[in-house]
Amino acid sequence: MKLREICETLDISRRALQGYEKAGLVSATGRNKYGHLLYDETAKLRIEKIKFYQQLGFSLKEISSLIDAPNIVVKEALEKQVEKLKNERTEKDKLIEKANQMIAALVNENNHK
């Protein structure tokens, strides 16, 4: 796949992919006769994994230590990240509830004016 195709297929920007390359996480697997960068299926799968790790909140530096790590290391990092995300969700749920209470109070206040 050409650079443009890989970006469209995986819904990532060219700049993001270049960042992955700069961080040493992935590299093009060749060039076609027109000089366009090409990526094979292995590179595509690697880019998908990088994107997923980013969505989970890992930095590129953290991803570079995880991408080729043994499964046990990846498993532990994922479990820790999931716990962190659960805690963040709990905190956000509390904020949403507090905001909803404030909205209700404002509505009640307006109804009594």
From TrEMBL:
<protein>
    <recommendedName>
        <fullName>HTH merR-type domain-containing protein</fullName>
    </recommendedName>
</protein>
<keyword id="KW-0678">Repressor</keyword>
<dbReference type="InterPro" id="IPR000551">
    <property type="entry name" value="MerR-type_HTH_dom"/>
</dbReference>
<keyword id="KW-0175">Coiled coil</keyword>
<keyword id="KW-0238">DNA-binding</keyword>
<feature type="domain" description="HTH merR-type">
    <location>
        <begin position="1"/>
        <end position="69"/>
    </location>
</feature>
<dbReference type="Pfam" id="PF13411">
    <property type="entry name" value="MerR_1"/>
</dbReference>
<dbReference type="InterPro" id="IPR009061">
    <property type="entry name" value="DNA-bd_dom_put_sf"/>
</dbReference>
<keyword id="KW-0804">Transcription</keyword>
<dbReference type="InterPro" id="IPR047057">
    <property type="entry name" value="MerR_fam"/>
</dbReference>
<feature type="coiled-coil region">
    <location>
        <begin position="75"/>
        <end position="105"/>
    </location>
</feature>
<keyword id="KW-0805">Transcription regulation</keyword>
